User: Fold these one by one.
Assistant:
Number 1:
Amino acid sequence: MFVFDKGFDFDAKLNIRFRPGAVKEIGKELKKMGFKKALVVTDPGVLKAGLHNGLIKSLVDENIEYETFSDVEPNPRDISVEKAAKLAKELQIDVVIGIGGGSSLDTAKGVGFLLTNPGRIKDYNGKDKVKNEPIPIIAIPTTAGTGSEVTANAAITDAEDHVKMSVRSPKIIPSLAVLDPELLATLPQKVAAYSSMDALIHAIESYLSRGANAFSDFFNLKAIELISKYIRPFCAEPSNIEAAGNMLIGSMLAGLGISNTGTGNAHALGRALGGEYDMAHGLACSVVFPHVMKFNAVSQPDKYVDIAKAMGLITDGLTKKQIAEKVVEEIFALMDDLKIEKNLNTLNVKKESFERMAQVAISNVKPNPRKTTLEDLVQLFNDAY
Ligand SMILES: [Fe+2]
């Protein structure tokens, strides 16, 4: 059911290139668009695995000048994004290409808008603060996780107080998303597991969100279906092109969802954990996710039935309450199969930090379907402990 009296907005830029080897065609595409100088933004892992080689060759083949910034950090800090933007300004680039996980894509977004907007990243923390159109941003994900290639959001950490900021504006949606399943083939097991789980959490939290609407529901249900079907075979063997391709499509669809609905408590808590402990985003959200799902079950029983169906669970003869319990069970089982840590105490998280992190998380609970208090958040941390 949608809240028709409030209506909804849905922003997207859908320029997608999806195929094995798509990354090798980018040079030609950029040439057609008239670009002359690019900054390639990536992280040391991508560089080491040589995932950028096809992209670089395609730029060289088309005589597009380029420079590489490869110092992207996991949970990128504002000061390092600003460093990349400074380099981009000196080089006078006309296009920025992010290749990597969400951190690389979000850093590229930061570079894109800082080139045309004055000041620092923190001046743009929040919704619709970016005034001028960024330079074109090309996004090439190497994980099936954040969906950042189609989102209007960049998550960047404030280096001073370790809080994750969120720059949100349709202006920073990448101009082109290049989805190449071959780039996922060498993903380390842990990265594949954490990022894939993040994509599933996006689809489910967006589907349950108070901001959910006809468009986001359409994308999210398909995302839940694709991700549920392919997450295990993909994590078992990321070079399985069919699984990787479907995971990329699933994570992109979920990205379209969250970009327009916001996320729920798993992300509110996960972001606080990520800021305090510099934990991988997918892990931080996963570890609290089944508990959040248990907490939210009373708020949207019908939607839990839809989720169970999209996940391919057999629900014949079960009550809505039992179906919701089955969804939670399946999430725990999936985390077991993917070898994702299920307890905060095994991740060296200290109970003393729960209250402080809850204070941070409380500002992000608005889209969550069940009304959430500070005490609820502390309890959810305790549940995950
Ligand atoms: Fe996420």
Note: The chain has a mean pLDDT of 96.
Number 2:
Amino acid sequence: MSKALHRLSQCFLPDNSDARRRSREIDAMLKRDRLIPPVVIFLAGSRKGGKTTFLKQMRLINGAEYNHKEVLEFREAIYDDIIQGMRVLVQERNKLGIPLQNSANEKHEMLFNSCDWHMNLEPYTFQPYVEAVNSLWKDSGIQEAHRRRTDFEFCESVKYFCDNIHRIGQLNYLPYNQDILYAHSFGQYFVLRDTPFAIAESSWRLILRKTFFGIDFNTPFFYIIGCSDYDRTGFEDNRLVDSLNYFECLCRNGRLRNCPFILFFNKMDLLAEKIHTTDIRKNFPEFQGDPHRLEDVQEFLVQSFQKRKGDDSRQIFYHMTTAVDTENFQKVFKSVKDDIMLSICKYFSLL
Ligand SMILES: Nc1nc2c(ncn2[C@@H]2O[C@H](COP(=O)(O)OP(=O)(O)OP(=O)(O)O)[C@@H](O)[C@H]2O)c(=O)[nH]1
Ligand SMILES: [Mg+2]
């Protein structure tokens, strides 16, 4: 019997039966002996869709705060995000031929064009950038380059950090949890691939992976979609199209045949803003509905993924999320637990 099946089948034994009591005793014994490894759930999704942020939130809502060493590493990542982000804006402003509003900002731009990538990023070494970021971010030339960011590779969190540069630029700055959720570079090298959590007193483990060895036959599969990326093209393929293609690929994978998918339509905050400035029909001409109405765009996204799932009997659950918003994430995760239980019930034909 698979680990998941063994564990989950116990949810359906009559509450006060001898079998259930016995089962609990056995479970307790096995747990004590650490013989039950946690049920594994896989997590995948599109590029920059929010996978790492999702894992960070899972860790935070499960009460595991980051320790001081980790916070310092996040601080370094945030400095790095800011410097890299501003450097991109400076270069793109030049490429696009957008004039600076304030010519005094030229010297600040030079700082980003000539920065040393090997320096240790600490509050002291970051100081020269604080004034430069502050002044450039207010310049309408840099703002115009930022407005056109869809045309080049750019980290969305840079706006949040630049808006908060006064606080982040303090010598005694330590990132809040909210800052940590917005840090991007960090996710590239920190091990955030394995996050434990509990459902119905059972332990589960969320794994971020590209290969699916060891997957249980009915374990749910989390799939994260960066919704606001519907217009992301530039030098790469459209990210939403990539995400649809990858999803279809996963649905066709024989190993995942019986896995219910839980789709997270992420970056809802950015999507809600973007629909007012960027018409989805430009990239998805098949869209029918009001392109400036969030519900219409959400419905279109859901339908687009539903169409790609292939097998009609496959269970799909979905949620609209903003992974950087802890309150939203907490609510969503409560219903995700219900989804998981429901998918299990359906698997055993109990509903
Ligand atoms: N505003 C906003 N930003 C988000 C949201 N989810 C993620 N981000 C930001 O988007 C950026 C990319 O998120 P990640 O979690 O690193 O995405 P990823 O899928 O792990 O990216 P890769 O590993 O590079 O493919 C980060 O700067 C996050 O802070 C969201 O819901 N809203
Ligand atoms: Mg990542």
Note: The pocket of guanosine-5'-triphosphate (ligand 1) is lined by residues 45, 47-53, 155-157, 181-182, 184, 187, 266-267, 269-270, 322-324 (CB under 6 Å).
